[in-house]
Design goal:
With 448 residues, this protein is of the alpha+beta class. It is 65% helix and 16% strand. Helix 5 runs antiparallel to helix 8 and helix 9 runs antiparallel to helix 10. The radius of gyration is 40 Å and the shape is elongated.
Length: 448
Protein backbone atom coordinates (compact mmCIF):
# COMPACT_ATOMS: atom_id res chain seq x y z
CA UNK A 1 0.00 0.00 0.00
CA UNK A 2 2.81 2.38 0.95
CA UNK A 3 4.55 1.56 -2.33
CA UNK A 4 1.40 2.45 -4.28
CA UNK A 5 1.10 5.85 -2.62
CA UNK A 6 4.82 6.36 -3.11
CA UNK A 7 4.39 5.82 -6.87
CA UNK A 8 1.53 8.31 -6.95
CA UNK A 9 3.61 10.86 -5.10
CA UNK A 10 6.49 10.32 -7.55
CA UNK A 11 4.11 10.93 -10.44
CA UNK A 12 2.96 14.20 -8.88
CA UNK A 13 6.57 15.19 -8.23
CA UNK A 14 7.46 14.49 -11.86
CA UNK A 15 4.52 16.61 -13.00
CA UNK A 16 5.68 19.51 -10.86
CA UNK A 17 9.22 19.08 -12.15
CA UNK A 18 8.07 19.25 -15.76
CA UNK A 19 5.87 22.22 -14.90
CA UNK A 20 8.77 24.10 -13.32
CA UNK A 21 11.05 23.23 -16.26
CA UNK A 22 8.38 24.53 -18.60
CA UNK A 23 8.17 27.68 -16.51
CA UNK A 24 11.92 28.21 -16.82
CA UNK A 25 11.56 27.80 -20.56
CA UNK A 26 8.68 30.22 -21.03
CA UNK A 27 10.48 32.94 -19.10
CA UNK A 28 12.70 33.23 -22.18
CA UNK A 29 9.66 33.79 -24.38
CA UNK A 30 8.14 37.13 -25.33
CA UNK A 31 5.55 38.32 -22.84
CA UNK A 32 2.33 38.72 -24.81
CA UNK A 33 -0.03 41.49 -23.80
CA UNK A 34 -3.60 41.52 -25.05
CA UNK A 35 -2.71 44.25 -27.53
CA UNK A 36 0.23 42.24 -28.84
CA UNK A 37 -1.94 39.13 -29.26
CA UNK A 38 -4.55 41.14 -31.16
CA UNK A 39 -1.94 42.72 -33.43
CA UNK A 40 -0.49 39.30 -34.21
CA UNK A 41 -3.92 37.81 -34.90
CA UNK A 42 -5.05 40.65 -37.15
CA UNK A 43 -1.85 40.38 -39.14
CA UNK A 44 -1.67 36.60 -39.50
CA UNK A 45 -5.17 35.14 -39.07
CA UNK A 46 -6.23 33.44 -42.30
CA UNK A 47 -9.88 34.49 -42.18
CA UNK A 48 -8.84 38.13 -41.84
CA UNK A 49 -6.40 37.87 -44.72
CA UNK A 50 -9.06 36.28 -46.94
CA UNK A 51 -11.72 38.89 -46.14
CA UNK A 52 -9.24 41.69 -46.79
CA UNK A 53 -8.51 40.26 -50.23
CA UNK A 54 -12.25 40.13 -50.90
CA UNK A 55 -12.49 43.77 -49.88
CA UNK A 56 -9.77 44.60 -52.41
CA UNK A 57 -11.95 43.04 -55.12
CA UNK A 58 -14.91 45.26 -54.23
CA UNK A 59 -12.55 48.26 -54.12
CA UNK A 60 -11.23 47.41 -57.58
CA UNK A 61 -14.78 47.10 -58.95
CA UNK A 62 -15.70 50.64 -57.94
CA UNK A 63 -14.72 52.46 -61.15
CA UNK A 64 -16.54 54.65 -63.66
CA UNK A 65 -15.58 52.22 -66.40
CA UNK A 66 -17.19 49.28 -64.63
CA UNK A 67 -20.36 51.35 -64.20
CA UNK A 68 -20.52 52.09 -67.95
CA UNK A 69 -19.66 55.79 -67.99
CA UNK A 70 -16.74 55.33 -70.40
CA UNK A 71 -16.82 54.17 -74.04
CA UNK A 72 -15.34 50.93 -75.27
CA UNK A 73 -12.73 50.87 -78.05
CA UNK A 74 -12.05 47.73 -80.05
CA UNK A 75 -9.29 47.01 -82.51
CA UNK A 76 -9.93 44.22 -85.00
CA UNK A 77 -8.23 42.75 -88.03
CA UNK A 78 -9.03 39.84 -90.24
CA UNK A 79 -8.10 37.95 -93.35
CA UNK A 80 -10.34 35.73 -95.44
CA UNK A 81 -10.22 34.15 -98.87
CA UNK A 82 -12.07 31.91 -101.30
CA UNK A 83 -10.94 29.46 -103.91
CA UNK A 84 -13.66 28.57 -106.43
CA UNK A 85 -14.17 26.89 -109.78
CA UNK A 86 -16.37 29.19 -111.87
CA UNK A 87 -18.43 28.22 -114.93
CA UNK A 88 -20.30 30.96 -116.83
CA UNK A 89 -22.69 30.53 -119.80
CA UNK A 90 -23.38 33.53 -121.99
CA UNK A 91 -27.09 34.05 -122.63
CA UNK A 92 -26.71 35.35 -126.22
CA UNK A 93 -24.19 32.90 -127.69
CA UNK A 94 -24.41 29.98 -125.30
CA UNK A 95 -20.65 30.13 -124.94
CA UNK A 96 -19.33 28.60 -121.73
CA UNK A 97 -16.36 30.10 -119.89
CA UNK A 98 -14.63 28.06 -117.21
CA UNK A 99 -12.13 29.31 -114.61
CA UNK A 100 -10.77 26.85 -112.11
CA UNK A 101 -8.98 27.71 -108.90
CA UNK A 102 -10.08 31.34 -108.77
CA UNK A 103 -8.72 32.85 -105.53
CA UNK A 104 -10.26 35.96 -103.98
CA UNK A 105 -8.72 37.46 -100.81
CA UNK A 106 -9.96 40.04 -98.32
CA UNK A 107 -7.85 41.84 -95.71
CA UNK A 108 -9.48 44.21 -93.18
CA UNK A 109 -8.53 46.17 -90.07
CA UNK A 110 -10.37 48.76 -88.04
CA UNK A 111 -10.90 50.63 -84.80
CA UNK A 112 -14.42 50.95 -83.36
CA UNK A 113 -15.71 53.11 -80.51
CA UNK A 114 -19.05 52.37 -78.85
CA UNK A 115 -20.48 54.64 -76.17
CA UNK A 116 -23.79 54.52 -74.36
CA UNK A 117 -24.53 58.19 -73.77
CA UNK A 118 -27.83 57.72 -71.95
CA UNK A 119 -29.71 54.65 -70.80
CA UNK A 120 -32.34 56.02 -68.45
CA UNK A 121 -30.00 56.61 -65.45
CA UNK A 122 -29.03 52.94 -65.26
CA UNK A 123 -25.32 53.82 -65.39
CA UNK A 124 -25.70 56.22 -62.47
CA UNK A 125 -27.58 53.57 -60.47
CA UNK A 126 -24.89 50.97 -61.18
CA UNK A 127 -22.13 53.35 -60.13
CA UNK A 128 -23.92 54.08 -56.85
CA UNK A 129 -24.40 50.35 -56.30
CA UNK A 130 -20.68 49.72 -56.82
CA UNK A 131 -19.99 52.38 -54.21
CA UNK A 132 -22.35 50.69 -51.77
CA UNK A 133 -20.75 47.29 -52.49
CA UNK A 134 -17.34 48.82 -51.81
CA UNK A 135 -18.58 50.04 -48.44
CA UNK A 136 -20.17 46.63 -47.84
CA UNK A 137 -16.74 45.09 -48.38
CA UNK A 138 -15.31 47.44 -45.77
CA UNK A 139 -18.09 46.52 -43.34
CA UNK A 140 -17.56 42.80 -43.97
CA UNK A 141 -13.89 43.25 -43.13
CA UNK A 142 -14.86 45.19 -40.01
CA UNK A 143 -17.24 42.41 -38.95
CA UNK A 144 -14.49 39.81 -39.37
CA UNK A 145 -12.03 41.97 -37.44
CA UNK A 146 -14.53 42.54 -34.61
CA UNK A 147 -15.31 38.82 -34.42
CA UNK A 148 -11.62 37.97 -34.22
CA UNK A 149 -10.95 40.61 -31.57
CA UNK A 150 -13.89 39.28 -29.56
CA UNK A 151 -12.75 35.65 -29.86
CA UNK A 152 -9.11 36.46 -29.17
CA UNK A 153 -9.89 38.69 -26.18
CA UNK A 154 -12.24 36.10 -24.70
CA UNK A 155 -9.68 33.32 -25.13
CA UNK A 156 -6.89 35.53 -23.79
CA UNK A 157 -8.77 36.07 -20.54
CA UNK A 158 -9.77 32.40 -20.48
CA UNK A 159 -6.06 31.59 -20.60
CA UNK A 160 -5.47 34.04 -17.75
CA UNK A 161 -8.34 32.41 -15.87
CA UNK A 162 -6.93 28.92 -16.35
CA UNK A 163 -3.50 30.11 -15.18
CA UNK A 164 -5.08 31.57 -12.03
CA UNK A 165 -7.00 28.36 -11.49
CA UNK A 166 -3.78 26.41 -11.87
CA UNK A 167 -2.25 28.55 -9.12
CA UNK A 168 -5.29 27.98 -6.91
CA UNK A 169 -5.02 24.23 -7.38
CA UNK A 170 -1.29 24.32 -6.66
CA UNK A 171 -2.10 26.15 -3.46
CA UNK A 172 -4.73 23.52 -2.63
CA UNK A 173 -2.12 20.80 -3.16
CA UNK A 174 0.29 22.62 -0.86
CA UNK A 175 -2.39 22.82 1.84
CA UNK A 176 -3.15 19.12 1.48
CA UNK A 177 0.56 18.36 1.59
CA UNK A 178 0.94 20.33 4.82
CA UNK A 179 -2.01 18.50 6.33
CA UNK A 180 -0.51 15.16 5.27
CA UNK A 181 2.78 16.14 6.89
CA UNK A 182 1.04 16.96 10.15
CA UNK A 183 -0.98 13.72 10.10
CA UNK A 184 2.10 11.60 9.30
CA UNK A 185 4.02 13.22 12.17
CA UNK A 186 1.18 12.59 14.62
CA UNK A 187 0.58 9.09 13.30
CA UNK A 188 4.21 8.24 13.89
CA UNK A 189 3.94 9.29 17.54
CA UNK A 190 0.61 7.51 17.90
CA UNK A 191 -1.65 10.51 18.38
CA UNK A 192 -3.61 9.93 15.17
CA UNK A 193 -5.17 6.85 13.63
CA UNK A 194 -4.33 5.17 10.36
CA UNK A 195 -7.78 6.21 9.09
CA UNK A 196 -6.79 9.88 9.50
CA UNK A 197 -3.57 9.22 7.60
CA UNK A 198 -5.34 7.41 4.80
CA UNK A 199 -7.94 10.17 4.46
CA UNK A 200 -5.22 12.83 4.33
CA UNK A 201 -3.47 10.89 1.55
CA UNK A 202 -6.72 10.48 -0.39
CA UNK A 203 -7.39 14.21 -0.19
CA UNK A 204 -3.82 15.00 -1.24
CA UNK A 205 -4.06 12.66 -4.24
CA UNK A 206 -7.46 14.12 -5.19
CA UNK A 207 -6.06 17.64 -5.25
CA UNK A 208 -3.01 16.45 -7.17
CA UNK A 209 -5.28 14.75 -9.72
CA UNK A 210 -7.25 17.97 -10.19
CA UNK A 211 -3.98 19.81 -10.71
CA UNK A 212 -2.93 17.38 -13.47
CA UNK A 213 -6.30 17.79 -15.21
CA UNK A 214 -5.94 21.56 -15.00
CA UNK A 215 -2.61 21.33 -16.83
CA UNK A 216 -4.50 19.78 -19.76
CA UNK A 217 -7.19 22.48 -19.69
CA UNK A 218 -4.52 25.19 -19.70
CA UNK A 219 -2.75 23.48 -22.59
CA UNK A 220 -5.97 23.38 -24.63
CA UNK A 221 -6.55 27.10 -24.03
CA UNK A 222 -3.00 27.87 -25.14
CA UNK A 223 -3.52 25.89 -28.35
CA UNK A 224 -6.72 27.81 -29.09
CA UNK A 225 -5.04 31.17 -28.46
CA UNK A 226 -2.11 30.31 -30.71
CA UNK A 227 -4.49 29.06 -33.39
CA UNK A 228 -6.46 32.31 -33.37
CA UNK A 229 -3.17 34.18 -33.81
CA UNK A 230 -2.31 31.77 -36.66
CA UNK A 231 1.08 30.91 -35.18
CA UNK A 232 2.99 28.27 -37.08
CA UNK A 233 3.69 26.27 -33.93
CA UNK A 234 0.29 26.16 -32.24
CA UNK A 235 1.71 24.35 -29.21
CA UNK A 236 4.46 26.83 -28.45
CA UNK A 237 4.76 28.16 -24.93
CA UNK A 238 2.93 31.39 -24.18
CA UNK A 239 3.40 33.91 -21.39
CA UNK A 240 0.69 36.56 -21.07
CA UNK A 241 1.15 39.91 -19.41
CA UNK A 242 -2.01 39.76 -17.29
CA UNK A 243 -2.22 37.69 -14.13
CA UNK A 244 -5.65 38.91 -12.99
CA UNK A 245 -8.99 39.59 -14.69
CA UNK A 246 -10.25 43.12 -14.03
CA UNK A 247 -13.62 43.89 -15.68
CA UNK A 248 -14.50 47.47 -16.56
CA UNK A 249 -17.27 48.52 -14.17
CA UNK A 250 -17.64 52.03 -15.63
CA UNK A 251 -19.81 51.20 -18.65
CA UNK A 252 -23.00 53.25 -18.99
CA UNK A 253 -26.17 51.68 -20.40
CA UNK A 254 -27.40 54.84 -22.17
CA UNK A 255 -24.06 55.36 -23.89
CA UNK A 256 -23.83 51.72 -24.95
CA UNK A 257 -27.37 51.82 -26.35
CA UNK A 258 -26.73 55.01 -28.31
CA UNK A 259 -23.51 53.73 -29.84
CA UNK A 260 -25.13 50.40 -30.68
CA UNK A 261 -27.80 52.10 -32.79
CA UNK A 262 -25.14 54.25 -34.48
CA UNK A 263 -22.12 52.00 -34.96
CA UNK A 264 -23.20 48.36 -34.81
CA UNK A 265 -21.69 46.68 -37.88
CA UNK A 266 -24.57 44.25 -38.45
CA UNK A 267 -27.06 47.12 -38.43
CA UNK A 268 -24.91 49.09 -40.86
CA UNK A 269 -24.73 46.10 -43.21
CA UNK A 270 -28.52 45.76 -43.10
CA UNK A 271 -28.80 49.46 -43.95
CA UNK A 272 -26.50 48.96 -46.93
CA UNK A 273 -28.64 46.07 -48.15
CA UNK A 274 -31.64 48.37 -47.99
CA UNK A 275 -29.86 51.01 -50.06
CA UNK A 276 -28.76 48.40 -52.63
CA UNK A 277 -32.39 47.26 -53.00
CA UNK A 278 -33.40 50.85 -53.77
CA UNK A 279 -30.66 51.13 -56.41
CA UNK A 280 -31.76 47.83 -57.98
CA UNK A 281 -35.25 49.29 -58.32
CA UNK A 282 -33.79 52.43 -59.87
CA UNK A 283 -31.89 50.32 -62.41
CA UNK A 284 -35.05 48.45 -63.40
CA UNK A 285 -37.02 51.69 -63.55
CA UNK A 286 -34.47 53.12 -66.01
CA UNK A 287 -35.87 50.82 -68.70
CA UNK A 288 -38.89 53.13 -68.89
CA UNK A 289 -36.62 55.71 -70.59
CA UNK A 290 -35.13 55.69 -74.09
CA UNK A 291 -31.47 54.95 -74.69
CA UNK A 292 -28.94 56.82 -76.83
CA UNK A 293 -25.80 55.16 -78.19
CA UNK A 294 -22.93 56.45 -80.30
CA UNK A 295 -20.59 54.41 -82.45
CA UNK A 296 -17.58 55.59 -84.44
CA UNK A 297 -15.16 53.50 -86.45
CA UNK A 298 -12.24 53.81 -88.79
CA UNK A 299 -11.35 50.89 -91.04
CA UNK A 300 -9.23 49.63 -93.89
CA UNK A 301 -10.26 46.89 -96.32
CA UNK A 302 -8.34 45.37 -99.25
CA UNK A 303 -9.83 42.88 -101.73
CA UNK A 304 -7.87 40.90 -104.34
CA UNK A 305 -9.66 39.33 -107.34
CA UNK A 306 -8.45 36.94 -109.99
CA UNK A 307 -11.39 37.57 -112.29
CA UNK A 308 -13.32 40.62 -113.33
CA UNK A 309 -12.30 44.13 -114.37
CA UNK A 310 -10.30 44.82 -111.19
CA UNK A 311 -7.65 42.71 -109.61
CA UNK A 312 -7.47 44.76 -106.37
CA UNK A 313 -9.67 47.17 -104.42
CA UNK A 314 -8.76 49.21 -101.31
CA UNK A 315 -11.20 50.98 -98.99
CA UNK A 316 -10.17 53.24 -96.09
CA UNK A 317 -12.39 55.63 -94.17
CA UNK A 318 -14.52 56.67 -91.24
CA UNK A 319 -17.91 55.29 -90.26
CA UNK A 320 -20.17 56.69 -87.55
CA UNK A 321 -23.67 56.50 -86.30
CA UNK A 322 -26.02 57.29 -83.48
CA UNK A 323 -28.87 55.13 -82.24
CA UNK A 324 -31.91 56.26 -80.32
CA UNK A 325 -34.14 53.48 -79.10
CA UNK A 326 -36.98 52.71 -76.77
CA UNK A 327 -38.43 49.39 -75.63
CA UNK A 328 -42.16 49.62 -76.36
CA UNK A 329 -43.25 46.17 -75.18
CA UNK A 330 -41.30 43.33 -73.55
CA UNK A 331 -44.05 40.96 -72.49
CA UNK A 332 -44.77 42.90 -69.26
CA UNK A 333 -41.41 41.74 -67.85
CA UNK A 334 -40.42 45.30 -67.00
CA UNK A 335 -43.50 45.82 -64.83
CA UNK A 336 -42.98 42.45 -63.16
CA UNK A 337 -39.35 43.22 -62.32
CA UNK A 338 -40.32 46.63 -60.92
CA UNK A 339 -42.93 45.09 -58.63
CA UNK A 340 -40.43 42.49 -57.43
CA UNK A 341 -37.85 45.22 -56.79
CA UNK A 342 -40.39 47.17 -54.72
CA UNK A 343 -41.16 44.05 -52.68
CA UNK A 344 -37.44 43.58 -52.10
CA UNK A 345 -37.23 47.14 -50.78
CA UNK A 346 -40.06 46.38 -48.35
CA UNK A 347 -38.26 43.22 -47.22
CA UNK A 348 -35.01 45.10 -46.67
CA UNK A 349 -36.87 47.70 -44.57
CA UNK A 350 -38.44 44.91 -42.51
CA UNK A 351 -35.04 43.25 -42.08
CA UNK A 352 -33.59 46.54 -40.86
CA UNK A 353 -36.39 46.97 -38.33
CA UNK A 354 -35.96 43.37 -37.22
CA UNK A 355 -32.21 43.88 -36.77
CA UNK A 356 -32.87 46.94 -34.62
CA UNK A 357 -35.27 44.95 -32.46
CA UNK A 358 -32.84 42.03 -32.14
CA UNK A 359 -30.04 44.39 -31.12
CA UNK A 360 -32.21 46.02 -28.45
CA UNK A 361 -33.16 42.59 -27.08
CA UNK A 362 -29.57 41.31 -27.11
CA UNK A 363 -28.33 44.51 -25.52
CA UNK A 364 -30.91 44.29 -22.74
CA UNK A 365 -29.95 40.67 -21.99
CA UNK A 366 -26.22 41.34 -22.03
CA UNK A 367 -26.58 44.45 -19.87
CA UNK A 368 -28.62 42.53 -17.29
CA UNK A 369 -25.97 39.80 -17.20
CA UNK A 370 -23.24 42.44 -16.92
CA UNK A 371 -24.81 44.23 -13.93
CA UNK A 372 -25.70 40.96 -12.19
CA UNK A 373 -22.16 39.65 -12.58
CA UNK A 374 -20.76 42.92 -11.21
CA UNK A 375 -22.91 42.48 -8.09
CA UNK A 376 -21.93 38.83 -7.90
CA UNK A 377 -18.26 39.78 -8.24
CA UNK A 378 -18.42 42.11 -5.24
CA UNK A 379 -20.23 39.45 -3.21
CA UNK A 380 -17.68 36.75 -4.06
CA UNK A 381 -14.83 39.04 -3.02
CA UNK A 382 -16.37 39.23 0.46
CA UNK A 383 -16.97 35.47 0.48
CA UNK A 384 -13.33 34.80 -0.37
CA UNK A 385 -12.08 36.95 2.49
CA UNK A 386 -14.39 35.09 4.86
CA UNK A 387 -13.29 31.70 3.51
CA UNK A 388 -9.62 32.60 3.98
CA UNK A 389 -10.22 33.69 7.57
CA UNK A 390 -12.17 30.49 8.24
CA UNK A 391 -9.36 28.35 6.87
CA UNK A 392 -6.69 30.19 8.86
CA UNK A 393 -8.71 29.58 12.01
CA UNK A 394 -9.35 25.96 11.04
CA UNK A 395 -5.68 25.14 10.37
CA UNK A 396 -4.62 26.62 13.71
CA UNK A 397 -7.27 24.62 15.55
CA UNK A 398 -6.25 21.54 13.58
CA UNK A 399 -2.63 21.95 14.63
CA UNK A 400 -3.80 22.21 18.25
CA UNK A 401 -5.85 19.04 17.86
CA UNK A 402 -9.16 20.86 18.34
CA UNK A 403 -10.49 20.16 14.82
CA UNK A 404 -10.93 16.93 12.88
CA UNK A 405 -9.43 16.27 9.47
CA UNK A 406 -12.88 16.20 7.88
CA UNK A 407 -13.69 19.65 9.25
CA UNK A 408 -10.35 20.98 8.02
CA UNK A 409 -11.04 19.49 4.61
CA UNK A 410 -14.41 21.22 4.52
CA UNK A 411 -12.74 24.54 5.30
CA UNK A 412 -10.16 23.91 2.58
CA UNK A 413 -12.85 23.02 0.04
CA UNK A 414 -14.81 26.12 0.98
CA UNK A 415 -11.72 28.23 0.33
CA UNK A 416 -11.09 26.61 -3.06
CA UNK A 417 -14.74 26.94 -4.05
CA UNK A 418 -14.75 30.62 -3.04
CA UNK A 419 -11.69 31.19 -5.23
CA UNK A 420 -13.38 29.37 -8.09
CA UNK A 421 -16.59 31.38 -7.78
CA UNK A 422 -14.70 34.68 -7.65
CA UNK A 423 -12.64 33.72 -10.67
CA UNK A 424 -15.73 32.61 -12.60
CA UNK A 425 -17.58 35.83 -11.71
CA UNK A 426 -14.61 37.92 -12.90
CA UNK A 427 -14.39 35.98 -16.16
CA UNK A 428 -18.14 36.09 -16.84
CA UNK A 429 -18.22 39.82 -16.16
CA UNK A 430 -15.34 40.28 -18.59
CA UNK A 431 -17.19 38.28 -21.24
CA UNK A 432 -20.25 40.51 -20.80
CA UNK A 433 -18.01 43.56 -21.11
CA UNK A 434 -16.51 42.17 -24.34
CA UNK A 435 -20.00 41.51 -25.74
CA UNK A 436 -21.13 45.04 -24.87
CA UNK A 437 -18.07 46.52 -26.53
CA UNK A 438 -18.66 44.44 -29.66
CA UNK A 439 -22.39 45.13 -29.98
CA UNK A 440 -21.76 48.88 -29.63
CA UNK A 441 -18.96 48.90 -32.22
CA UNK A 442 -16.25 49.79 -29.68
CA UNK A 443 -14.39 46.49 -29.45
CA UNK A 444 -11.38 47.84 -31.36
CA UNK A 445 -10.72 49.83 -28.19
CA UNK A 446 -8.91 46.75 -26.88
CA UNK A 447 -6.23 47.52 -29.46
CA UNK A 448 -5.38 50.78 -27.69
Amino acid sequence: MKKRYSNIFQTILLTFTLSFCGSDFVFSQEIMSLKRCLETGLMQNYDIRIIRNEQKISDNNYTVGNAGYLPTIDLSAGYSGTSNNIEQKLAETGEINKNNGVDNQTLNAGVNLNWTIFDGFQIQAKYEKLKELKQMGELSTRLAVEDLISSLTSEYYNYVRQNIRLGNLKYAVSLSKERLRIVEARYNIGSMSRLDLQQARVDFNTDSSNLIKQQEILYTSRIMLNQLMALEDVSQMLVVADSVIIPDSRLQEAEIREKTMMYNAHLLVTGKNKRISELDYKAVKSRDFPYLRLNVGYGYTQNRYETGSYDRQKTMGLNYGITLGFSIFDGFNRKREQKNAQIQIQNSELQYDQMELDLKANLANIWMAYTNNLDLLNLEKENLETARENYDIAIERYKLGELSGIELREAQNSLLEAEERLLLASYNTKLCEISLMQISGQITGYME
